[in-house]
């Protein structure tokens, strides 16, 4: 969604491909610094843009000191056009910072989970919620281990389901895609 938003000049085409945001309160967008549309897997850094459609604010969380500032700002302006309302862009400089060059994706996942589960879903209706991440520590190593545990549990669940299935194949192999 973000790649399409960033690279397609015709915003009407983009809007037709996106979900209906009319009943959405918040949008989480991973932002990538890929500037070459011919290389879908390009780019080297990820950050998080959290858009509150209720408040008209886009919060940018960048674990590499604002490296994706311009990409997040462009995404905010384009999304504002699609939403048909102004969005105020806030680059949160108190975002926890990664200590190496490879944790940005993990940071995006962990920050998104924290903001959704610990902030937005815990708040009462009409309660003001701080979107600051000041003082929040991110355990990227623990986050990676947790993601691997989740993947492994899902893999095992798939195996269990296949072993109980009425598959016509004797070896209970995974289904093939047409």
Task: Write structural notes for this entry.
By secondary structure, the protein is an alpha+beta fold. It has a single domain (2-163), classed as Adenoviral Proteinase, Chain A (Adenoviral Proteinase, Chain). 39% of the residues lie in helices and 13% in strands. It contains five helices and four strands, in the order ααβββαβαα. The protein has helices at 2-7, 11-17, 69-83, 104-120, 140-164; strands spanning 26-32, 46-52, 57-61, 88-92. It has a four-stranded mixed beta sheet with strand order 1-2-3-4, sandwiched between helices. β2 and β3 (57-61) form a beta hairpin. It is globular. The protein starts with a helix and ends in a 14-residue tail after the last helix.
Write the layout of secondary structure elements.
Blueprint: H1 2-7, H2 11-17, E1 26-32, E2 46-52, E3 57-61, H3 69-83, E4 88-92, H4 104-120, H5 140-164
Parallel strand pairs: 3-4
Antiparallel strand pairs: 1-2, 2-3
CATH superfamily membership? Adenoviral Proteinase, Chain A
Number of helices: 5
What is the radius of gyration computed over CA atoms, rounded to a whole number of angstroms? 19 Å
Largest sheet: 4 strands, mixed
Q: Spatial order of the strands in the main sheet?
A: 1-2-3-4
Shape: globular
Strand content: 5-15%
The portion of residues assigned to helices is 25-40%
Write down the CATH topology.
Answer: Adenoviral Proteinase, Chain
Kindly name the structural category: alpha+beta
Q: What's the CATH class label?
A: Alpha Beta
CATH architecture: 3-Layer(aba) Sandwich
User: Can you count the beta strands?
Assistant: 4
Number of domains: 1
Pfam family, one: Peptidase_C48
InterPro entries: Nep1/2-like, Papain-like_cys_pep_sf, Peptidase_C48_C
GO biological process, one term: protein deneddylation
Protein name: Ubiquitin-like protease family profile domain-containing protein
